[in-house]
Amino acid sequence: MSVNEPLNGINSNFSPRARILVLTIAFSPRDETQQIVDKFRMLAATAPVDGMRFVIWDNKSWGLSSVDDVNYHSSPNGNIGFGSAVNRVHELYDYDRILLLNSDIEMDPELFNRIVLRNYELSETTIWSPTLLNADGSLQTAPESLYMRTPVQEVFDIFGFPAKRQRRAQPLYYVRGAVFSISRRLLQQSGGFDEAFFLYGEEADLCFRLDGCCELVVDPVVCVIHHGSQGNKGKSREALRHSYNARVLLHKKYSGSLAARVVQIAVNCATTARDAKSLGTQWAQKLSAAVSR
What is the pTM of this model? Predict the structure, then answer.
């Protein structure tokens, strides 16, 4: 895609340079996507500083319109995945720092302004995320737990068993991508998100590739409620497939082919067991309905 190619009726060679580019990758029903556009309009209207740009990349391709200070892009090729969409926006815009916001977080103007002002203080070498909370206010993931799992830990997690923490001599750490801030320089230095990751694992891989070149910060003061994080049991079949694929790919890149093979076998077994359980439930429901007639 050319940087000067018109996209959704807008010339993509935008100016001037944005201090902070706020981006959401949407993959939601049409009415929910429109709500994201409306939320961005509200946030843009109350932004505490100048030099900001608000962008929505729609992987559902609903063909909505850009309004006021919000630039909307309908993906011309359907759902291209999270990392690929961020890379396309990176090519289209000029900015100093990009702030990625999931569509499943709670964000009001007061909280957003705190995040923006915090981001204005960050150095080019900092990757930043707030503390993520569940809807009940409990901690979603402890910052010290955000590191590359060993294959044994991965297998235990896939099957839903608790595993003791096993630390490597030099663990690889990352920050969560639900609210994720990175400078243009670092994103450029990393080569962008690895587009082999479709839905999960992109932020971890990016942080691992920049290990030693950046400072990872999980802000203990700024807290954001994130509704999308759920265990394997809560994921749809499609989401679980992408999650499993990301795990295998991460281990292939950072643990070696043998470790990746072990994780792949665990994934295959867990998927087979899940499908068998689902099929058994369906047959039990049919049998129960037949008997009750």
Answer: 0.87
CB 156 within 8 A of CB 162: yes
Using DSSP's 3-state secondary structure scheme, residue 218 falls into strand
> What number of residues does the chain have?
293
Structure tokens at 113: 């302004």
Q: Helix, strand or coil for residue 104?
A: coil
Cross-strand pairs, 215 = 126
Task: Say if residues 178 and 102 touch (Cβ distance below 8 Å).
Answer: yes
Chain-centre distance for alpha carbon 144: 19
| End-to-end CA separation in angstroms for the chain | 59
Residue 197 falls in which region: left (phi positive, over 0), alpha (psi -120 to 50) or beta = beta
Q: Which residue in the block uniquely carries the two structure tokens 């309908």?
A: 74
Strand partners, 54: 22, 70
How far is Cα 56 from Cα 27, in angstroms, rounded to an integer? 10
Residue-level pLDDT, tens digit, the chain, 293 residues: 333 333 443 434 445 789 999 999 999 999 999 999 999 999 999 998 889 999 999 999 999 999 888 999 999 999 999 999 999 999 999 999 999 999 999 999 999 999 999 999 999 999 999 999 999 999 988 877 788 988 988 898 888 887 666 665 567 899 999 999 999 999 999 999 999 999 899 999 999 999 999 999 999 999 999 997 656 666 778 888 999 999 999 999 999 999 999 999 999 998 898 878 877 777 877 777 777 76
- Kindly provide the b/e burial profile for residues 163-194, where b requires at least 16 CB atoms within 10 angstroms of the residue's own CB: eeeeeeeeebbbbbbbbbbbbbebbeebebbb
